[in-house]
Design a protein that fits this description.
alpha/beta; Purple Acid Phosphatase, chain A, domain 2; 3 domains; elongated
């Protein structure tokens, strides 16, 4: 038996890091990615398309999103589509899952208990749903397979045994331990929630199929899962993303003006495409007029979006901080306060000094002598 599994698409996500126009483009791209996943399911002639939750954003979906999902999944018939709602697309009266009149090929799991869906002869899919945005318990607690054959789990949950994932910043919705999968009688669990892809011995996280933020890595996408007669599986990860996001660092050391910084950004992004986040680092010249919004507004035409942030920037030696600290002025008092602050790390202190001195220098005529 062959399944195509994905999760965490997050249709209608706000993309708060992007400007409004680009955020709208990114939301459209997520729809295109779902269409790509559906085409892949047909091309690979899978027996079912499975989703491990967070298909869409409950608080932001529109009637158009509901119709898009109904039509997209309906067009796959007779290929079966199995949906296990997560904490962002939880099953409830106001959800798409209850509002839409799904075609016969779509099955939505709708309880917080793993329930059996006899699939093919000798194979059972056990699925469950989040029925609230939080506080969903462990689906595997007190669960035990009650029949013979091959058993596959489908749900949205947080595996607690992987320390790297525990520090991913994700809330532990429906937490469980990997060894519970095998002890429950399931041969494998197809999951959602963690956006970082994981190929566990008895569980699979596909990762979000299309980029949602910067800094994402790993082979995320959709997963073709082959299930053998003995319950063992093989996996093939397939990239389905419509767009890409990139992180690059640009050294501004020696750049004496805005245009010089812009040229360095253009050089660093010349071979990239999609959305790019540039982190500026290095030695900052005191007279450099570094305005991040202006740099972002000058994004190269071949990029979908450009986001710029300050990284490890330090003040060039021409800024004599000890001398400035002796000034009887607003600037001098500012330098003294920051340098004497015990609540700031050295990196934070440098960033505060850079930002503050640039702002004060821009308004030098307004400085008050103390």
């Amino acid at each position: 038996m062959r399944l195509l599994h994905f999760a965490d698409l997050h249709l209608d996500t706000p993309f708060k890091w992007a400007k409004p126009q680009h955020a709208h483009q990114r939301r459209r791209a997520l729809r295109t990615t779902l269409e790509t996943i559906c085409r892949l399911a047909e091309e690979r002639q899978v027996d079912a398309l499975t989703c491990g939750g967070d298909l869409y954003e409950h608080d932001r979906f529109t009637p158009d999103t509901a119709k898009f999902l109904r039509d997209t999944f309906g067009a796959l018939a007779p290929l079966r589509v199995l949906l296990a709602p997560g904490n962002h697309d939880w099953f409830g009266p106001g959800s798409i899952y209850q509002q839409v009149e799904w075609t016969d090929n779509v099955h939505v799991f709708n309880t917080t208990q793993l329930t059996a869906l006899p699939f093919t002869e000798g194979v059972t899919i056990w699925g469950a749903a989040h029925c609230a945005p939080a506080n969903t318990p462990n689906f595997l607690d007190d669960f035990q397979v009650d029949r013979g054959g091959i058993h596959i789990g489908l749900f949205h949950g947080s595996e607690q045994g992987n320390l790297a994932l525990q520090h991913s910043g994700k809330e532990p919705h429906a937490p469980f331990y990997a060894d519970q999968i095998r002890r429950s009688g399931l041969h494998h669990a197809l999951l959602g929630h963690f956006h970082k892809p994981v190929d566990g011995e008895f569980h699979t996280y596909p990762g979000n199929p299309d980029p949602l933020s910067f800094g994402e890595d790993g082979s995320r996408g959709a997963v073709v899962v082959e299930i053998s007669d003995d319950g063992s599986i093989t996996r093939e990860r397939v990239r389905v993303a419509t767009t890409t996001v990139n992180d690059v660092r640009v050294d501004v050391t020696g750049a004496t003006n805005h245009t010089a910084v812009l040229h360095r950004i253009f050089e660093a992004t010349a071979e990239l495409h999609g959305a790019v986040r540039v982190t500026l680092e290095g030695m900052l010249e005191p007279d450099l007029d570094l305005r991040l919004p202006d740099l972002e507004a000058s994004a190269p035409d071949h990029l979908d979006a450009l986001s710029i942030q300050e990284g490890r920037l330090s003040i060039a030696e021409s800024y004599d901080l000890e001398h400035l600290a002796q000034e009887h002025s607003v600037r001098g008092q500012f330098v003294r306060d920051v340098m004497n602050s015990e609540s700031l790390t050295e990196e934070q202190r440098q960033r505060v000094l850079i930002t503050g001195l640039r702002a004060l220098d821009a308004n030098v005529n307004e400085l008050e002598i103390l």
